[in-house]
Q: What sequence folds into this?
């Protein structure tokens, strides 16, 4: 990841990363004349905290995939455009995306405390992705590759519970205020 000022940020700890080296990577895409393989230089950085190395990919490259993002997105959208990828490769992309989508939905559900069913989370995420336009696949990839404790960079997980003037976020208990001991009468559940 790169900051707005061009500095390198570790994707795990969000601290500053150190440049380590550059490496070549091929990117496949389909041009009007046929399939093209373009070589590019990618930056590899090292996290000074944990010592792990990571590669910085441009926005149109998908980690562990040879084809560019637009080719994969067209296959996932069932477009019959111009992609030269084989039917087997396209089927692999669909299976890969299905697993990634389920992992993202599960991670969001765990982040919000399992208060909503996976189906509702999936529907809400799909609705948001439709509004994003062509950037939907990049958004889902970013969610997938982000640590669970950093999901707040992409999702507003508490906007419905925290509003201006709501200093007290919990509800009153049936037998009195949430901070007070239960009064005489019926004991609280489990008491």
A:
């Amino acid at each position: 990841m790169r900051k707005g000022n061009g500095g390198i940020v570790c994707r795990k700890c969000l601290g500053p990363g150190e440049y380590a080296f550059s490496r070549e990577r091929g990117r496949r895409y389909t041009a009007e004349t046929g399939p093209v393989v373009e070589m590019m230089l990618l930056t590899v950085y090292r996290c000074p905290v944990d010592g792990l190395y990571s590669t910085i990919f441009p926005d149109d490259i998908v980690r562990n995939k040879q084809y560019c993002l637009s080719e994969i997105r067209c296959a996932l959208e069932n477009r019959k455009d111009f992609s030269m990828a084989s039917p087997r490769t396209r089927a692999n992309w669909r299976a890969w995306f299905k697993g990634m989508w389920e992992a993202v939905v599960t991670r969001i559900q765990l982040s919000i405390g399992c208060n909503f069913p996976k189906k509702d989370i999936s529907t809400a995420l799909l609705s948001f992705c439709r509004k994003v336009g062509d950037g939907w696949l990049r958004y889902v990839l970013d969610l997938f590759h982000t640590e669970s404790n950093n999901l707040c960079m992409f999702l507003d997980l508490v906007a419905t519970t925290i509003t201006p003037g709501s200093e007290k976020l919990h509800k009153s208990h049936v037998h009195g205020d949430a901070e007070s001991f239960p009064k005489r009468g019926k004991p609280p559940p489990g008491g």
